[in-house]
Design brief:
The structure is a single chain. This protein is α+β, with helices and mostly antiparallel strands. The protein is built from 7 helices and 11 strands. The strands form 3 sheets. Strands 1-2-3-10-5-8 form a 6-stranded antiparallel beta sheet, covered by helices on one side. Helix 4 packs antiparallel against helix 5 and helix 4 packs across helix 6.
Length: 225
């Protein structure tokens, strides 16, 4: 996917809260110095290119320090929420803060659901034909081959996967449009966390695809939540 394609998508989708969450999560990941060492990051270039210059006010430093303090307090609250709970909750504590907070808020109202063997799904927000969800994929597991009824944006947050066309690692953004068939499968090693924003149902293929649909991968947008 090139920068022109990404620009076109974000120009039409940035008013969507789900895409805004994806953008905030990407920005938080880029705050990690490790991500600045990569030279193949198209998404970061897109976000930087769409930023508008802004002058600094006299209180800019004070506001920046306050934001740092707020972020530290948020991290402490998250650690307290997951302390002594299961391993999956401990994993959430290590996710980028915008995504972590969205996931912890979602868990107050709903639970993880089965999305296929080795896959768990957590609905974060939905409505107006859009669904944003956090997916947890065990190493070596993945989705059956499928096409798309509409655009699907996927941010790889941890781990890596190969979809039969390319390899994606943490920090990469995948765009799949109608007519594009792939079968993402998590690499061995680290658990793969994905933030997926979809505008239509996946169209699974073959017997395994039908089974995956029956076991928990229908696309069911609901009222905003």
């Amino acid at each position: 996917m090139n920068a022109q394609t990404l620009n076109a998508v974000f120009d039409t989708r940035m008013s969507d809260p789900a895409v805004n969450l994806l953008a905030l999560t990407t920005a938080a990941m880029r705050a990690d110095p490790d991500y600045f060492r990569r030279d193949d990051d198209v998404a970061s270039g897109v976000f930087l290119a769409t930023e508008q210059p802004a002058s600094l006010g006299e209180d800019a430093l004070a506001r920046a320090l306050a934001m740092i303090d707020d972020g530290a307090a948020m991290d402490r609250r998250a650690s307290e929420q997951v302390h002594g709970r299961d391993a999956r909750m401990a994993e959430l504590a290590g996710l980028p803060s915008p995504l972590r907070e969205a996931a912890l808020e979602a868990l107050k109202h709903r639970s993880w659901t089965f999305g296929g063997f080795g896959i768990r799904r957590l609905a974060l927000m939905n409505g107006d034909g859009t669904e944003a969800e956090l997916m947890r994929v065990e190493p070596g597991f993945g989705a059956a081959p499928h096409d798309h009824a509409a655009d699907e944006l996927t941010l790889i947050v941890t781990g890596a996967y190969d979809d039969g066309h390319d390899r994606y690692q943490a920090g990469d953004l995948s765009l799949a449009s109608p007519g594009f068939t792939h079968a993402p499968k998590a690499e061995m090693g680290e658990v793969c966390y994905l933030l997926a924003v979809t505008y239509g149902p996946p169209r699974f293929k073959g017997a395994f695809g039908l089974l995956q649909t029956a076991l928990g991968f229908p696309w069911t947008p609901k009222a905003k939540g």
